[in-house]
Amino acid sequence: MTAWWCEYADLGAGPVAGVRVVAEGEHIVTVERADAPAAGDSRLAGIVFPGFANAHSHAFHRALRGRTHDRGGSFWTWRQQMYAVADRLDPDSYLALARAAYAEMALAGVTCVGEFHYLHHPPGGGRYTDPNVMGEALVQAASDAGIRLTLLDACYLAGGLEGTGHLPLDAVQSRFSDGDADAWADRFHLLPARAGVRIGAAVHSVRAVPASRLPVVARAAAGRPLHVHLSEQPAENDACSAFYGRTPTRVLHDAGVLGADTTAVHATHLTGGDVDLLGRSGTAVCACPSTEADLADGVGPLRRLRDAGTPLCLGSDQHAMTDLLGEARLLEAHERLVSGERGRFRPVELVAALTADGHRALGWADAGRLAPGMRADLVAVRLDSPRTAGCAPGQLVMVAGATDVHTVVVDGRVVVSDGRHVLGDVGRLLADAIHALEGQA
Prior knowledge:
2 domains; alpha/beta; TIM Barrel
Protein backbone atom coordinates (compact mmCIF):
# COMPACT_ATOMS: atom_id res chain seq x y z
CA MET A 1 0.00 0.00 0.00
CA THR A 2 1.10 3.55 -0.76
CA ALA A 3 -0.64 6.58 0.74
CA TRP A 4 -0.58 10.28 -0.01
CA TRP A 5 -2.04 12.99 2.18
CA CYS A 6 -3.27 15.90 0.08
CA GLU A 7 -3.53 19.44 1.43
CA TYR A 8 -6.41 19.75 -1.04
CA ALA A 9 -7.72 17.23 -3.56
CA ASP A 10 -10.10 17.77 -6.45
CA LEU A 11 -12.73 15.07 -6.15
CA GLY A 12 -14.84 16.22 -9.09
CA ALA A 13 -16.75 19.17 -7.69
CA GLY A 14 -13.79 21.31 -6.74
CA PRO A 15 -11.00 21.09 -4.14
CA VAL A 16 -11.61 19.47 -0.76
CA ALA A 17 -9.24 20.14 2.15
CA GLY A 18 -7.47 17.25 3.85
CA VAL A 19 -7.80 14.11 1.71
CA ARG A 20 -5.93 10.85 2.07
CA VAL A 21 -5.51 8.70 -1.07
CA VAL A 22 -4.35 5.11 -0.67
CA ALA A 23 -3.28 2.93 -3.60
CA GLU A 24 -2.39 -0.69 -4.05
CA GLY A 25 -0.32 -1.18 -7.15
CA GLU A 26 -1.73 0.84 -10.05
CA HIS A 27 -5.15 1.58 -8.56
CA ILE A 28 -6.67 3.63 -5.78
CA VAL A 29 -8.28 1.61 -3.01
CA THR A 30 -9.51 4.34 -0.65
CA VAL A 31 -10.11 8.08 -0.70
CA GLU A 32 -11.02 9.57 2.68
CA ARG A 33 -11.09 12.85 4.55
CA ALA A 34 -8.18 13.29 6.98
CA ASP A 35 -7.21 16.40 8.90
CA ALA A 36 -3.57 15.31 9.05
CA PRO A 37 -1.33 12.70 7.39
CA ALA A 38 -0.93 9.28 8.97
CA ALA A 39 2.47 7.84 9.76
CA GLY A 40 4.22 6.92 6.52
CA ASP A 41 2.04 9.06 4.26
CA SER A 42 3.66 11.15 1.57
CA ARG A 43 2.50 14.75 1.92
CA LEU A 44 1.39 16.57 -1.23
CA ALA A 45 1.12 20.32 -0.83
CA GLY A 46 -1.22 22.48 -2.90
CA ILE A 47 -4.08 20.93 -4.85
CA VAL A 48 -3.96 17.35 -6.09
CA PHE A 49 -5.83 16.66 -9.32
CA PRO A 50 -6.38 13.41 -11.16
CA GLY A 51 -3.87 12.94 -13.97
CA PHE A 52 -4.22 15.17 -17.00
CA ALA A 53 -4.93 13.58 -20.39
CA ASN A 54 -3.29 15.12 -23.45
CA ALA A 55 -5.86 13.92 -25.96
CA HIS A 56 -4.08 15.09 -29.12
CA SER A 57 -0.34 15.06 -29.73
CA HIS A 58 2.00 15.00 -32.72
CA ALA A 59 5.23 14.38 -30.81
CA PHE A 60 7.53 15.19 -33.71
CA HIS A 61 6.08 18.70 -34.02
CA ARG A 62 7.93 19.54 -30.81
CA ALA A 63 11.01 20.06 -32.99
CA LEU A 64 9.31 23.12 -34.54
CA ARG A 65 8.73 25.14 -31.37
CA GLY A 66 10.27 28.59 -31.68
CA ARG A 67 11.37 27.96 -35.27
CA THR A 68 8.42 28.97 -37.45
CA HIS A 69 7.74 32.59 -36.54
CA ASP A 70 9.93 34.43 -39.04
CA ARG A 71 7.97 33.66 -42.20
CA GLY A 72 4.38 34.63 -41.50
CA GLY A 73 1.93 32.87 -43.77
CA SER A 74 -0.80 30.45 -42.69
CA PHE A 75 -1.39 26.89 -41.60
CA TRP A 76 -0.51 25.76 -45.11
CA THR A 77 2.90 27.46 -45.16
CA TRP A 78 3.64 26.16 -41.65
CA ARG A 79 2.78 22.68 -42.92
CA GLN A 80 5.70 22.77 -45.34
CA GLN A 81 8.10 23.34 -42.44
CA MET A 82 6.45 20.49 -40.57
CA TYR A 83 6.85 18.18 -43.56
CA ALA A 84 10.57 18.99 -43.67
CA VAL A 85 10.92 17.64 -40.12
CA ALA A 86 8.77 14.60 -40.89
CA ASP A 87 11.04 13.71 -43.79
CA ARG A 88 14.11 13.44 -41.51
CA LEU A 89 12.78 11.09 -38.84
CA ASP A 90 13.70 7.43 -38.48
CA PRO A 91 12.82 5.02 -35.65
CA ASP A 92 15.80 6.04 -33.50
CA SER A 93 15.37 9.79 -33.86
CA TYR A 94 11.60 9.44 -33.45
CA LEU A 95 12.16 7.57 -30.18
CA ALA A 96 14.58 10.19 -28.85
CA LEU A 97 12.32 13.12 -29.72
CA ALA A 98 9.11 11.49 -28.50
CA ARG A 99 10.73 10.35 -25.24
CA ALA A 100 11.79 13.91 -24.48
CA ALA A 101 8.44 15.36 -25.57
CA TYR A 102 6.54 12.90 -23.37
CA ALA A 103 8.81 13.64 -20.42
CA GLU A 104 8.03 17.34 -20.87
CA MET A 105 4.34 16.42 -20.78
CA ALA A 106 4.85 14.51 -17.54
CA LEU A 107 6.44 17.59 -16.00
CA ALA A 108 3.22 19.44 -16.90
CA GLY A 109 1.00 16.84 -15.18
CA VAL A 110 0.14 14.66 -18.18
CA THR A 111 -0.30 11.02 -17.19
CA CYS A 112 -1.69 9.79 -20.53
CA VAL A 113 -1.18 10.98 -24.09
CA GLY A 114 -3.10 10.30 -27.28
CA GLU A 115 -0.54 10.23 -30.10
CA PHE A 116 -2.08 10.87 -33.51
CA HIS A 117 0.45 8.83 -35.46
CA TYR A 118 0.94 8.84 -39.21
CA LEU A 119 4.72 8.57 -39.67
CA HIS A 120 4.42 4.90 -40.55
CA HIS A 121 6.98 4.12 -43.23
CA PRO A 122 10.47 5.18 -44.40
CA PRO A 123 10.93 8.41 -46.35
CA GLY A 124 9.98 7.81 -49.95
CA GLY A 125 7.26 5.31 -49.06
CA GLY A 126 9.17 2.05 -48.72
CA ARG A 127 8.57 -0.38 -45.86
CA TYR A 128 10.45 -1.20 -42.68
CA THR A 129 10.99 -4.88 -41.87
CA ASP A 130 8.67 -4.32 -38.92
CA PRO A 131 5.81 -2.32 -40.49
CA ASN A 132 4.96 -0.81 -37.09
CA VAL A 133 8.48 0.07 -35.98
CA MET A 134 7.68 3.79 -35.88
CA GLY A 135 4.64 3.16 -33.70
CA GLU A 136 6.71 0.92 -31.46
CA ALA A 137 9.15 3.80 -31.01
CA LEU A 138 6.28 5.83 -29.57
CA VAL A 139 5.28 2.98 -27.26
CA GLN A 140 8.85 2.79 -25.96
CA ALA A 141 9.06 6.57 -25.61
CA ALA A 142 5.95 6.74 -23.44
CA SER A 143 7.17 3.86 -21.29
CA ASP A 144 10.55 5.54 -20.80
CA ALA A 145 8.85 8.82 -19.89
CA GLY A 146 6.58 7.06 -17.40
CA ILE A 147 3.20 7.92 -18.93
CA ARG A 148 0.46 5.86 -20.57
CA LEU A 149 -0.15 5.99 -24.30
CA THR A 150 -3.11 5.65 -26.61
CA LEU A 151 -1.56 5.11 -30.01
CA LEU A 152 -4.00 6.51 -32.56
CA ASP A 153 -2.79 4.90 -35.75
CA ALA A 154 -3.90 7.08 -38.65
CA CYS A 155 -5.13 6.10 -42.07
CA TYR A 156 -3.74 8.52 -44.69
CA LEU A 157 -4.42 7.81 -48.36
CA ALA A 158 -4.56 11.05 -50.38
CA GLY A 159 -2.45 14.17 -50.70
CA GLY A 160 -5.32 16.58 -50.24
CA LEU A 161 -8.75 17.53 -51.55
CA GLU A 162 -9.84 20.05 -54.13
CA GLY A 163 -13.19 20.74 -55.72
CA THR A 164 -12.34 18.27 -58.47
CA GLY A 165 -11.37 15.45 -56.11
CA HIS A 166 -8.56 13.98 -54.06
CA LEU A 167 -4.95 14.68 -54.92
CA PRO A 168 -2.08 12.20 -55.19
CA LEU A 169 0.39 11.94 -52.33
CA ASP A 170 3.49 14.11 -52.57
CA ALA A 171 7.01 12.86 -51.86
CA VAL A 172 6.82 13.42 -48.10
CA GLN A 173 3.25 12.20 -47.68
CA SER A 174 4.11 8.86 -49.27
CA ARG A 175 5.61 7.69 -45.96
CA PHE A 176 2.28 8.38 -44.25
CA SER A 177 0.29 6.00 -46.46
CA ASP A 178 -0.30 2.26 -46.61
CA GLY A 179 -1.60 2.58 -50.15
CA ASP A 180 -5.22 1.70 -49.43
CA ALA A 181 -7.53 1.41 -46.44
CA ASP A 182 -7.48 -2.39 -46.32
CA ALA A 183 -3.68 -2.42 -46.18
CA TRP A 184 -3.84 0.17 -43.39
CA ALA A 185 -6.29 -2.05 -41.50
CA ASP A 186 -4.06 -5.10 -41.92
CA ARG A 187 -1.08 -3.24 -40.44
CA PHE A 188 -3.24 -1.65 -37.73
CA HIS A 189 -4.44 -5.05 -36.52
CA LEU A 190 -0.83 -6.16 -35.98
CA LEU A 191 -0.42 -3.65 -33.14
CA PRO A 192 -0.75 -5.51 -29.83
CA ALA A 193 -2.43 -4.25 -26.68
CA ARG A 194 -0.19 -4.29 -23.62
CA ALA A 195 0.16 -2.76 -20.18
CA GLY A 196 0.11 1.01 -20.28
CA VAL A 197 -0.96 1.13 -23.93
CA ARG A 198 -4.27 1.34 -25.76
CA ILE A 199 -4.44 0.97 -29.53
CA GLY A 200 -6.86 3.32 -31.25
CA ALA A 201 -7.37 4.44 -34.82
CA ALA A 202 -7.53 7.73 -36.65
CA VAL A 203 -8.83 9.14 -39.89
CA HIS A 204 -6.31 11.82 -40.67
CA SER A 205 -9.00 14.03 -42.25
CA VAL A 206 -11.55 14.06 -45.05
CA ARG A 207 -8.74 15.58 -47.10
CA ALA A 208 -6.59 12.47 -46.68
CA VAL A 209 -9.19 9.66 -46.66
CA PRO A 210 -11.82 9.52 -49.41
CA ALA A 211 -15.40 9.08 -48.21
CA SER A 212 -15.67 5.63 -49.79
CA ARG A 213 -12.84 4.37 -47.59
CA LEU A 214 -14.05 5.83 -44.30
CA PRO A 215 -16.24 2.82 -43.42
CA VAL A 216 -13.15 0.56 -43.59
CA VAL A 217 -11.49 2.62 -40.87
CA ALA A 218 -14.67 2.80 -38.80
CA ARG A 219 -15.08 -0.99 -38.89
CA ALA A 220 -11.45 -1.62 -37.97
CA ALA A 221 -11.77 0.79 -35.04
CA ALA A 222 -14.96 -0.73 -33.64
CA GLY A 223 -14.85 -0.67 -29.85
CA ARG A 224 -11.67 1.42 -29.79
CA PRO A 225 -11.01 5.16 -29.70
CA LEU A 226 -11.30 6.72 -33.18
CA HIS A 227 -10.01 10.25 -33.75
CA VAL A 228 -10.17 12.57 -36.76
CA HIS A 229 -8.99 16.06 -37.67
CA LEU A 230 -12.17 17.98 -38.49
CA SER A 231 -12.73 21.37 -40.13
CA GLU A 232 -9.50 22.89 -38.88
CA GLN A 233 -9.31 25.21 -41.90
CA PRO A 234 -11.98 26.90 -44.07
CA ALA A 235 -10.18 25.63 -47.18
CA GLU A 236 -10.94 22.06 -46.07
CA ASN A 237 -14.63 22.88 -45.77
CA ASP A 238 -14.72 24.65 -49.12
CA ALA A 239 -13.08 21.77 -50.96
CA CYS A 240 -15.28 19.20 -49.25
CA SER A 241 -18.43 21.13 -50.08
CA ALA A 242 -17.35 21.57 -53.69
CA PHE A 243 -16.55 17.88 -54.21
CA TYR A 244 -19.01 16.07 -51.95
CA GLY A 245 -21.74 18.70 -51.63
CA ARG A 246 -21.58 18.23 -47.86
CA THR A 247 -19.61 19.49 -44.90
CA PRO A 248 -16.79 17.31 -43.53
CA THR A 249 -18.94 16.58 -40.46
CA ARG A 250 -21.77 15.32 -42.66
CA VAL A 251 -19.34 13.19 -44.71
CA LEU A 252 -18.09 11.56 -41.51
CA HIS A 253 -21.64 11.08 -40.22
CA ASP A 254 -22.84 9.47 -43.44
CA ALA A 255 -19.87 7.06 -43.38
CA GLY A 256 -20.59 5.93 -39.81
CA VAL A 257 -17.52 7.56 -38.28
CA LEU A 258 -19.23 9.70 -35.62
CA GLY A 259 -20.26 8.26 -32.26
CA ALA A 260 -19.42 7.92 -28.59
CA ASP A 261 -16.01 6.32 -29.29
CA THR A 262 -15.04 9.09 -31.71
CA THR A 263 -13.22 12.35 -31.02
CA ALA A 264 -13.12 15.18 -33.55
CA VAL A 265 -9.97 17.27 -33.20
CA HIS A 266 -10.30 21.05 -33.61
CA ALA A 267 -13.87 21.24 -35.02
CA THR A 268 -13.17 24.92 -35.57
CA HIS A 269 -15.26 25.90 -38.58
CA LEU A 270 -18.65 24.28 -38.11
CA THR A 271 -22.18 25.00 -39.23
CA GLY A 272 -25.10 24.84 -36.84
CA GLY A 273 -26.03 21.53 -38.42
CA ASP A 274 -22.52 20.22 -37.75
CA VAL A 275 -22.82 21.15 -34.08
CA ASP A 276 -26.13 19.28 -33.85
CA LEU A 277 -24.72 16.17 -35.56
CA LEU A 278 -21.72 16.02 -33.24
CA GLY A 279 -23.84 16.59 -30.15
CA ARG A 280 -26.57 14.08 -31.02
CA SER A 281 -24.01 11.39 -31.84
CA GLY A 282 -22.10 11.91 -28.58
CA THR A 283 -18.90 12.57 -30.50
CA ALA A 284 -16.27 14.26 -28.35
CA VAL A 285 -14.26 17.28 -29.48
CA CYS A 286 -10.64 17.85 -28.60
CA ALA A 287 -9.74 21.53 -28.50
CA CYS A 288 -6.09 22.51 -28.92
CA PRO A 289 -6.27 26.25 -28.16
CA SER A 290 -2.56 27.09 -28.24
CA THR A 291 -2.11 25.38 -31.61
CA GLU A 292 -5.28 26.88 -33.03
CA ALA A 293 -3.94 30.31 -32.04
CA ASP A 294 -0.39 29.62 -33.22
CA LEU A 295 -1.56 28.45 -36.65
CA ALA A 296 -4.21 31.18 -36.97
CA ASP A 297 -6.90 28.52 -37.29
CA GLY A 298 -9.67 30.37 -35.49
CA VAL A 299 -11.89 29.69 -32.48
CA GLY A 300 -14.44 26.90 -32.60
CA PRO A 301 -18.00 26.97 -31.18
CA LEU A 302 -16.95 25.03 -28.10
CA ARG A 303 -19.60 26.27 -25.66
CA ARG A 304 -22.30 25.50 -28.21
CA LEU A 305 -20.82 22.06 -28.76
CA ARG A 306 -20.78 21.33 -25.04
CA ASP A 307 -24.36 22.51 -24.68
CA ALA A 308 -25.37 20.26 -27.60
CA GLY A 309 -24.06 17.18 -25.76
CA THR A 310 -20.47 16.97 -26.99
CA PRO A 311 -17.85 16.13 -24.31
CA LEU A 312 -14.77 18.35 -24.53
CA CYS A 313 -11.15 17.43 -23.95
CA LEU A 314 -7.82 19.14 -24.53
CA GLY A 315 -4.62 18.54 -26.49
CA SER A 316 -1.28 20.21 -27.02
CA ASP A 317 -1.23 19.12 -30.71
CA GLN A 318 1.90 20.71 -32.24
CA HIS A 319 3.32 21.66 -28.82
CA ALA A 320 3.57 25.40 -29.29
CA MET A 321 3.47 25.01 -25.53
CA THR A 322 3.32 21.89 -23.39
CA ASP A 323 1.03 23.11 -20.65
CA LEU A 324 -2.37 21.45 -20.29
CA LEU A 325 -3.37 23.86 -17.53
CA GLY A 326 -2.60 26.63 -19.99
CA GLU A 327 -4.73 24.93 -22.64
CA ALA A 328 -7.65 24.81 -20.19
CA ARG A 329 -7.24 28.50 -19.42
CA LEU A 330 -7.14 29.34 -23.15
CA LEU A 331 -10.34 27.36 -23.71
CA GLU A 332 -12.11 29.85 -21.47
CA ALA A 333 -10.11 32.87 -22.64
CA HIS A 334 -10.90 32.31 -26.31
CA GLU A 335 -14.59 31.93 -25.50
CA ARG A 336 -14.48 35.26 -23.69
CA LEU A 337 -12.88 36.95 -26.70
CA VAL A 338 -15.50 35.75 -29.18
CA SER A 339 -18.54 36.06 -26.87
CA GLY A 340 -17.80 39.20 -24.87
CA GLU A 341 -18.72 37.29 -21.71
CA ARG A 342 -16.71 35.90 -18.80
CA GLY A 343 -17.28 32.54 -17.17
CA ARG A 344 -18.23 30.62 -20.29
CA PHE A 345 -16.67 27.49 -18.76
CA ARG A 346 -16.71 27.00 -15.01
CA PRO A 347 -13.48 25.79 -13.38
CA VAL A 348 -15.03 22.36 -12.71
CA GLU A 349 -15.80 22.01 -16.42
CA LEU A 350 -12.21 22.86 -17.32
CA VAL A 351 -10.93 20.27 -14.85
CA ALA A 352 -13.26 17.66 -16.36
CA ALA A 353 -11.88 18.40 -19.82
CA LEU A 354 -8.34 18.03 -18.46
CA THR A 355 -9.02 14.77 -16.66
CA ALA A 356 -12.02 12.43 -16.90
CA ASP A 357 -13.29 13.48 -20.33
CA GLY A 358 -9.79 13.42 -21.81
CA HIS A 359 -9.08 9.95 -20.49
CA ARG A 360 -12.45 8.71 -21.73
CA ALA A 361 -11.64 9.99 -25.23
CA LEU A 362 -8.43 7.96 -25.11
CA GLY A 363 -10.09 4.74 -23.97
CA TRP A 364 -9.11 4.87 -20.29
CA ALA A 365 -12.45 4.86 -18.49
CA ASP A 366 -10.67 3.88 -15.27
CA ALA A 367 -8.62 7.09 -15.12
CA GLY A 368 -9.28 10.77 -14.59
CA ARG A 369 -10.93 10.71 -11.13
CA LEU A 370 -9.64 10.36 -7.58
CA ALA A 371 -11.87 7.50 -6.48
CA PRO A 372 -11.57 3.85 -5.44
CA GLY A 373 -10.95 1.57 -8.40
CA MET A 374 -9.49 4.34 -10.53
CA ARG A 375 -5.88 4.48 -11.63
CA ALA A 376 -3.53 6.02 -9.09
CA ASP A 377 -2.70 9.16 -11.08
CA LEU A 378 -2.07 12.25 -8.96
CA VAL A 379 -0.91 15.69 -10.05
CA ALA A 380 0.04 18.11 -7.27
CA VAL A 381 -0.01 21.81 -8.17
CA ARG A 382 1.46 24.53 -5.96
CA LEU A 383 -0.72 27.12 -4.27
CA ASP A 384 2.25 29.23 -3.17
CA SER A 385 4.10 30.07 -6.39
CA PRO A 386 4.34 33.66 -7.68
CA ARG A 387 1.49 32.80 -10.10
CA THR A 388 -0.81 31.00 -7.69
CA ALA A 389 -0.19 32.64 -4.31
CA GLY A 390 -3.40 34.05 -2.85
CA CYS A 391 -5.78 32.49 -5.39
CA ALA A 392 -8.98 30.80 -4.29
CA PRO A 393 -8.29 27.04 -4.44
CA GLY A 394 -11.33 26.43 -6.60
CA GLN A 395 -10.00 28.82 -9.23
CA LEU A 396 -6.45 27.48 -9.43
CA VAL A 397 -7.05 26.11 -12.93
CA MET A 398 -7.45 29.72 -14.14
CA VAL A 399 -4.02 30.86 -12.93
CA ALA A 400 -1.65 27.87 -12.64
CA GLY A 401 0.68 26.58 -15.33
CA ALA A 402 3.01 23.69 -16.01
CA THR A 403 5.80 25.12 -13.87
CA ASP A 404 3.50 24.99 -10.83
CA VAL A 405 3.23 21.20 -11.04
CA HIS A 406 5.58 19.73 -8.44
CA THR A 407 4.67 16.02 -8.16
CA VAL A 408 3.21 13.58 -10.68
CA VAL A 409 2.23 9.99 -9.91
CA VAL A 410 1.27 7.65 -12.77
CA ASP A 411 -0.26 4.27 -11.94
CA GLY A 412 1.09 4.58 -8.41
CA ARG A 413 4.66 5.37 -9.51
CA VAL A 414 6.24 8.76 -8.83
CA VAL A 415 7.41 10.12 -12.20
CA VAL A 416 7.98 13.76 -11.21
CA SER A 417 9.17 14.80 -7.76
CA ASP A 418 9.83 18.39 -6.70
CA GLY A 419 9.52 19.43 -10.34
CA ARG A 420 12.17 16.98 -11.58
CA HIS A 421 11.51 14.08 -13.94
CA VAL A 422 12.96 10.63 -13.27
CA LEU A 423 14.86 10.89 -16.58
CA GLY A 424 16.73 13.94 -15.33
CA ASP A 425 17.32 17.06 -17.44
CA VAL A 426 14.39 17.07 -19.86
CA GLY A 427 15.57 20.30 -21.48
CA ARG A 428 18.83 18.61 -22.41
CA LEU A 429 16.96 15.58 -23.78
CA LEU A 430 14.87 17.86 -25.97
CA ALA A 431 17.83 19.91 -27.16
CA ASP A 432 19.84 16.81 -28.04
CA ALA A 433 16.96 15.24 -29.97
CA ILE A 434 16.17 18.40 -31.90
CA HIS A 435 19.80 19.27 -32.69
CA ALA A 436 20.35 15.73 -33.97
CA LEU A 437 17.58 16.33 -36.52
CA GLU A 438 19.20 19.61 -37.54
CA GLY A 439 22.32 17.66 -38.41
CA GLN A 440 20.29 15.64 -40.92
CA ALA A 441 18.97 18.69 -42.76
